[in-house]
Amino acid sequence: MRQQAPAHDLLAPLHPPTRYLFGPGPTMVDPRVYDALSKPIVGHLDPYFIQVMQDVQEALKIVYGAQEASILVISGTGSAGMEAAVANFVEPGTKFAVFANGYFSDRLTEMAKRNGANVVRFEKPWGEVFSDAEAEDFIRRERPNVVGYVHAETSTGALQAGRAICAAAHDAGALVIADCVTSLGGLPVEFDKTGMDIAYSCTQKGLSCPPGLSPLAISGRAMEWLRGRTTPSRSWYLDIKLIHDYSTVSHRYHHTAPISMFYALREALLVIAEEGIEKRWERHRRSHNFFVREIEAMGLRMHVPAANRIPTLNTVSVPSGVDDGKVRKRLMDGPGIEIAGGFGPLAGKVFRIGLMGPLATEENVKFFLSEFGKALRAEGYSI
Ligand SMILES: *Cc1c(COP(=O)(O)O)cnc(C)c1O
């Protein structure tokens, strides 16, 4: 006779296990943000809610370094922000130039193709970045309408500088889409200074909020281009003209905004403002430096050269002879620590370790490394 698996009790109360989220996201959430999620909702056209949206937009200007930009918050995760950027600024036949050095630039490529773009790619191995001269050459040669790059490539741990890309793109008359999903909140994005035109991010990485919203920054040039666009965006739900009208102009219904998530984001931004954004960046930078020193003292190697590392997302090379999946399982089954492995060309080759938000302190790094060391030793690595 076949044995029945014990029935899972659907009536049991929800009781999520305790986890330490040292992965690439989602990251740890401040208890104040959880409190905000439980506040009573109001309507999505209620003046109280409109004010909450405006507060969020104002606070995001500081975090983005985007005083000159329009800020919109998309109801959806980081990928919804990516899709909004592409669907609004790419038309059938648009020439879209992508700096391709990781998984998320591939996703950007796929979305652009689905929107009818003619995509040209400058490819590099995962973990490398593009120099200023290489970026300028590529853009001068291709003369695209839109350029896309990933500021902090979560799949590799590499940070791509954007100034030369943006300057060359503007010389060529192109707009620049920058993926800032893993950078926003943990390191300077400098939207205005860099010259980005459209940047998108998410709530669950550097902003230490649950997943569910995607903050966008849009330059004056990009808004002007959009006003002149004659074909409608292929996405109605992510149509930036319609969302901009709802959230900042007429406040007429477009879709029912997820009220509780806006409460949470407002509180998360308040937590950031109280610490001070520059202090927060500095705290992330210090924890990263400490982490790298200790990792190297353990005889381990970082995958990305020092000059190009993302301070919030560390890729550590898996030592030879060690099965990264088994190390991750030990961390999860024992202390309840979540980290991620590599994928694509980096499958089995790197650990991806996030130090974001509340976890970016020396004390938490010490806690993590002590457990990480134990798991590595148990899998045969001698430190
Ligand atoms: C996580 C991530 C995304 C996608 O965000 P989701 O919230 O998972 O939809 C896009 N780009 C980068 C660089 C990311 O790290």
How does this model look, in words?
- Helix 1 (31-37) runs antiparallel to helix 10, helix 2 (47-64) crosses helix 10 (259-275) and helix 12 crosses helix 13 (362-378).
- A seven-stranded mixed beta sheet has the order 2-10-9-8-5-3-4, sandwiched between helices. Strands 11-14-13 form a three-stranded antiparallel beta sheet, with helices on one face. A two-stranded parallel ribbon has the order 1-12.
- 46% of the residues are buried.
- The model has no long low-confidence stretch (mean pLDDT 96).
- The longest helix has 21 residues, at 277-297.
- The chain has two domains: 20-26 and 276-378, Alpha-Beta Complex (Aspartate Aminotransferase, domain 1); 31-273, Aspartate Aminotransferase, domain 2.
- With 383 residues, it is an alpha/beta fold.
- The protein is built from 13 helices and 14 strands.
- The chain is globular, with a radius of gyration of 21 Å.
- The structure holds pyridoxal-5'-phosphate.
- Residues 25, 77-79, 82, 104, 150, 154, 179, 181-182, 202, 211 line the site of pyridoxal-5'-phosphate.
